[in-house]
Amino acid sequence: MQIFIDSADPAEIRKYYELGIIDGVTTNPSLATKVGRPYREMVDEILSFVNGPVSLEVLGTTYDEMLREARGLSQINPNVYVKIPMLPEGIKVVKALAAEGIKTNVTLVFSPTQALFAAKAGANFVSPFIGRFDDTGHDGMEVLKEIVQIFKNYQFPAKVLAASIRSPRHLAEAAIIGADIATVSPDALEKSFKHPLTDKGLQAFLDDFKKSGLQPLV
Asked: Exactly one of 15, 34, 83, 145 is catalytic; which is it?
């Protein structure tokens, strides 16, 4: 499974990208406003070092607005995937962009039928929002499982991108279910690295070596 980082902060993205575990980036206007820098400046910096998909979102909601923005965003860099909201007009835009060879990521997907429509329109990525679905009292992972199965049934080329991943367990379950990609917040990535038994075991190794009086090999 590929792992993307869900952030608009170049410094934050670089920190995890340099670990070798990040395959791409997803951003949105809400994330960008938290950084406090010009949006285009941040995007250009991210694209300068990330060698993988970077999703940039349109702000319009009408067909003409979204189509115009998507064409402009696609010209910024070949790695750009244009995020289109799951709206009837959005699906129409995805169909048009697919015909032009412009890569898309349909966002704000909350049901298997929405995912099906996005895949049929020619989306490259389809992003069900797991955490936000859980917030409504429903089982986001069950929805993800259904979407993955539908895509397998009909061999859609679109990739399932599990979004709104909020915990290490979310990430593990998405991988078990078979999502192609998970986009993960920096906080959830940090938590996924940690386990109390790892810390305890490492400290025990270091203490034992120190007590032994042995010298390091190199």
From this structure: 83
> How far is Cα 62 from Cα 45, in angstroms, rounded to an integer?
29
How wide is the angle at C-alpha 94 spanned by C-alphas 90 and 100, nearest 5°? 145
Question: Is 83 labeled as catalytic in the residue annotation?
Answer: yes
- In whole angstroms, give the CA distance from residue 182 to residue 6: 9
Tokens of 136: 């409504």
Q: How much is the pTM?
A: 0.92
Sequential DSSP letters for 158-181: PEEEEEEE-SHHHHHHHHHHT-SE
Residue 62 tokens read as: 């009408």
The model's pLDDT over 165-187, given as tens digits with 9 standing for 90+, comes to 989 999 999 999 999 999 999 99
- Kindly report, residue by residue over 8-51, the tens digit of the pLDDT: 999 999 999 999 999 999 998 889 999 989 999 999 999 999 99
Distance of alpha carbon 201 from alpha carbon 194, whole angstroms: 12
For the chain, how big is the Rg over CA atoms in Å?
Answer: 20
Tally of domains in the chain: 1
In the chain, the amino acid numbered 4 is F
Residue 186, domain CATH = 3.20.20.70
Query: Which domain, by its residues, includes 10?
Result: 2-212
